[in-house]
Amino acid sequence: MAKKKKKKLPKKKTLTPAEEARRIAKLTKRGQSECVEVRGSEIHGRGVYATRDIEVEEHVIEYVGNFIDKEESERRAWALYEESEKTGGAAVYIFNVSKKWDLDGDVEWNPARLINHSCDPNCEAAQAKKRIYISATRPIKKDEEITFDYGFDADSYADHPCLCGSPKCIGYIVGKDHLKKFRKLQKKAKAEAESVAEE
Ligand SMILES: C[S@@+](CC[C@H](N)C(=O)[O-])C[C@H]1O[C@@H](n2cnc3c(N)ncnc32)[C@H](O)[C@@H]1O
Ligand SMILES: [Zn+2]
């Protein structure tokens, strides 16, 4: 029987400081956009605002960051979750890009990380090959805040009050795909509060 050839794993390349600086400079440039800028937000902290009218489906800004494998992604996601339990914050920075890789955008050279959530967002995160773009889901007027749906599940909705200010605001940061469960949990919590009040 022929001897099986040992599969060679690709070597993880360690970049020199100069190479790393060039990598960051390249990503920083890619993460900039001529149609938005960072300003103080009425929703929360800093946000991203349109500096001109933006058409539907236009790429507003690229969401840049570092590629991490799924194991590292899981570890970072838990760390963010634990922090959010302590602070009540609701940060979302990690995007799934392939079976193997996720993209962690929690880096200061990624202004798109400052985009706030809205219950009636004007953008969505769309993937093209291994890149993530924030693109407009409807026409956006100059000076409008750029928002997208954080897609949070309903389980810990009470920890994440929403301040998006939209007439469609449901009061909490919950993704549109989790609204059914959210309504159920809210109904249950209301019934429990009423039965306690009756005692
Ligand atoms: C990914 S950051 C967004 C940038 C943030 N505004 C900042 O200045 O760092 C996520 C943080 O913004 C807050 N945030 C985002 N959207 C929000 C909303 N609709 N209502 C309340 N807080 C929001 C969350 O609580 C979380 O702490
Ligand atoms: Zn809202």
What does this structure look like?
This protein is an alpha+beta fold and about 200 residues long. The protein has a domain at about 25-150: Beta Complex (Beta-clip-like). The protein has three helices and ten strands. It has helices at about 15-30, 70-85, 180-199; strands at about 35-40, 45-50, 60-65, 65-70, 95, 100-105, 115, 125-130, 130-135, 145-150. The strands form three sheets. It has a four-stranded mixed sheet with strand order 1-2-10-7, with no helix packed on it. A three-stranded antiparallel sheet has the order 3-9-8, with no helix packed on it. The chain is globular, with a radius of gyration of 21 Å. The structure holds S-adenosylmethionine and zinc ion (ZN). S-adenosylmethionine (SAM) binds next to strand 2 and strand 7.
Portion of residues in helices?
25-40%
On the 0 to 100 scale, the average pLDDT is: 91
How far is the N terminus from the C terminus? 79 Å
Output the number of helix runs. Answer: 3
> Could you give the order of the helices and strands?
HEEEEHEEEEEEH
Per the principal axes of the C-alpha atoms, what is the gross shape?
globular
CATH class identity of the domain at 23-151: Mainly Beta
Supply the CATH superfamily name of the domain at 23-151: SET domain
What's the CATH topology label of the domain at 23-151? Beta-clip-like
Which regions are unreliable across 5 or more consecutive residues at pLDDT < 50? none
